[in-house]
Amino acid sequence: MARRGHSVRCLRVCAFSVGCCMKEKFRQSMSWLHTWSGLILGWLMFVIFFTGTLSYFRQEITHWMQPETHSSVKFDPAAVDKAVDYLKQNAPDEAAGWLISLPNERTKTIEASWRVVKIDPKYGIRPEITQNFLDAATGENTNARKTHGGEFLYRFHIELYGIDKTHGRWIIGIATMAMFIAIITGIILHKRIFKDFFTFRQNKGVRSWMDAHIFTAILALPYHIMITYSGLLLLMMILLPWNTEEFLRQYKEMRAKMMSQPVEVIPADFEAYPPVSLVPLLKDAEERLGEKIGRIYISNPGQRSMTAQFVPFRSDKITYTDRSRSAEASVSYSLRNGRFYGEMTAEPVSAAYSIFNAFSTLHVARFADTFMRWLFFLSGVMGTIMTATGLIIWTQKKAKAAHKSFGRKLVEVLNIGGITGLAAATAAYFWANRLIPASLENRMSLELWAFFSVWALSFAHPLIRDRKKAWVDQLWLCAGLYALLPVLNAFTSPMNLIKAFSAGNMIVAGFDLTALATGVLLGLTAVAVSKKEVK
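Given the sequence above, the corresponding structure tokens read:
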């Protein structure tokens, strides 16, 4: 019996030893996977987080980048009829329809736009949308300058720039998958992850960077998991093309059929069919729906069947499925006599589609009000810092062991250009928007040229400058560019920071304050890095 008991104890000890060994090897493999999945595509992850975070306020950014619209603050319902008059005079006959977007908490102007369907031999049917911004009180055209605005940052976030959209989304999808792997392996790797959350050691070299990395990762961990997983769902049609072969076949057949049929353009005749006033219809629609109207779709303009569809601005429900209307219900009227046609509601969809739409709605914060949008923005900032500190940790760990290695020097140059360089390029994009004359036809291309030129120079700078000093130089450059944006706005816009507060234009005021706060934080970072360098 004693010998048998001894054998059992030996087996237990062996099993425990094997388990510990396997556990340690598993953790080592997770450490390797976490490091290299984060390092190889880390700079692209930083770009995705940085531009995606700014995209939460892409409409506000566009408003700031069109200073001609800053004087539009108070909305007068009578301006809706002025918008119709503007569309009657400027929209072409071949326009498929008109859209009037009313002011809300994210924009202060009336947007009058129309869509013309074009047949492209390569891409098939491609709608071309023309946007014009009108004063919310008078309905007069603001003659806002042409700019990509915040839409460029959003498009750069989801498909990069200068390459085919499909290829760009492939690259973004691969980087998103690497980010998801890095997050999951990071959770497995740090066995004291929640204990380390409350620990921050200053002036401890790599440990300080590690503490910052863990803190920003845990602080918004649910957001990081949600944003990466939902991003993969949004790109699954591209990442898993074998699941969509039948859909693509039917789409190609439909496109070929539509391209083979000539489009008949019926000239608008506003003398025979003048539209009734939209003002009483707008009031009636808000009373029927119990919500503020955000958009007015006008179909068949200048024809006997001309109708107007009144749609609330957005839905607060995460699972709502109609992305084009962003509301569950809408009402329609005849614009020939003002007759009420009825109320339309969104059709129920399957549970699977509702779940998919919930993730996509969460990803872009389509449901969010201003407060929730700021929470998403701050969570995105945490993700951006988490990615940046992760890249810096690798160079800090290799500082002594491989001080002269080519790999470490390359990573440090890419860190400087990819982190501070992207921040400087975005600030230069804002500066170019105001310094390039508004009358230039190619000003939109010049804005992008300024963005990519500054970004390219930020990679070249650490090649001819000591890399520690390059960090300080570019941090100070970013600090100055962002901190002085409110000053630039004061000289190039009728609405400076003080006037914006007094007039209630919180979009302009919020942008200026955020830019100022960003500049101050970057300046403090530059001071801290320069002190560390001297020490």
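The first strand starts at residue 97 and ends at 101. Try to locate this feature in the token string yourself.
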